[in-house]
Amino acid sequence: MPENMENQINAEIDKDGEAEVFITKDKLQAFLQVTPPVGKGKPCTLEKVKELLARKNIVYGIKEENLQKALEPENWGKRILIAQGEAARDGENARIVYHFPLPQDRVGPRIDEKGRADYYDLGLIHNVKMGDFLAEKIPATEGVAGKDITGRDIPPKRGKDVMLPRGKNTIADEENLRLFAAIDGNVTIIDNKVTVSPVFQVNGDIDYSTGNIDFVGSVVINGNVNTGFKVYAAGDIEVKGFIEGAEVVAGGNVVVKGGIVTGQRGLVKAGGNIYARFIENSRVEAENDIIIREAIIQSTVRAGGSVRVTDRRASIIGGKVQACQEVEAKFIGSQLATPTVIEVGVNPQYREEYQKIFKNLPSKKNTLENIAHNLQIIQKANIAPEKLDPKRRIMLMKLLDEFKKLRKEIAEMEERLNFLSEEMQKITEAKVKVWEVVYPGVRIILGQSIYIVDNPIKYSAFVLEEGEVRIAPLS
Hints:
The protein contains 6 helices and 38 strands. The chain is an alpha/beta fold. Helix 5 packs antiparallel against helix 6. The longest helix has 35 residues, at 390-424. Pfam families: FapA, FapA_N. Keywords: Coiled coil.
């Protein structure tokens, strides 16, 4: 081979070492990869690397020791971190610190030293004095700015603010950061706001010495609610004795240490939960759950949540029990085949409202048709309204006004009827749990499906599958 050709080939394979920089998309990191020299080529130098960094505008967070490390032969071909920026640290959101036990933390059965749940000591009321410190707002922070490897500042996101949850009977300081009780009463959370409700204490029975009670806060009765009397409270009602033939209605929870025997004229109704030892021959309704210790006997019971009977002989015998979610007991029905209806999966209030509208709608439509007929008669007479005598003109105006109002009312009723119909078709986790025996004479209704118990069934759950009520293992 000619000498000049050999020198040309050697020159082509001699190559200096090179460096390449890789920058992350957020420009917070840069990596250096050095390639080895070829043939008689020279290794890449620190000077060349720094020239490369300058061209790439990498000026911040440079790790000098890593530059040297990347240039070492044992690290050739590896990607070495040589610049590290600082990410922005977003500000913390404002938050509320409560200085009293929240309802969800304090409301619930107390567990005694033997591990037994006491459903009658539920901690529903937390009393405070005027001036008590209730809550404070920890303000949002601005955060800390960052900087990328090109030296560009990265602004942080400021934390989100929240309002001090000031409700009724509370007062804030000048900075609107601290909340205090404005009166003595029961502190609770209503519509996500801290509210202090006065608590009315009755140191005996509700009888002729007290009369009926209609109160804006919570009521504690250290006795019975006797036949014929009424107790209304916007908050919770706690009865240390029995409810007998009375009407007790609470916007919150109803807790009865004894039992409930309202008869057909009485009623116990709660916007929250109802807790009692037993229910017998009564009407009982709750927006949420109904928790009974011993038994529900020959009663009409309705819950927007679940109905649970929890004690050793927990029984539901006779009557009708309706719940949106679950009904749970150890025994349902009796050995005497007592007719008992368990209905789950539809909000009882929806069903009642649907039936009421469905019943009233035809008469409303009939009235509308009669008004429309009378208006048509007047229209066919071809008499201008201004030519009618004053009495007939007033009658015409009343008819037109009534027609418009009734037509609007019917449209709203039909819309509500459609909504309720759709809601009643939504059966989710509806279930009936029987931990011991369900007896003949019991009808179990899940949504629109019915299961009639002909023989005793033990330790089972009743669920809705493919439109039918089926028996499933307990879980």
